[in-house]
Design goal:
4-stranded antiparallel beta sheet
Length: 75
Amino acid sequence: MRGYVLINVRPGKVRDVVQAVSQLPGVRHCDACWGLPDVFAYVETEDERSFNQLVIDKIQKLEGVERTETHIAVA
């Protein structure tokens, strides 16, 4: 499964979140961006369950993460 996770971060935490997200298995690319959202992550996992675990159990629980918006790639 492939998709994009857009992450809103508390002020002052963008670099920390990018570093932490970049280290997670399944994250292929992660960038800090100006504007909202603060961070874009490209994610690839073997299946839907792994994707859910990555976003819900790992990314959303990182210190500084306020909100995520996930877009699943369909083609």
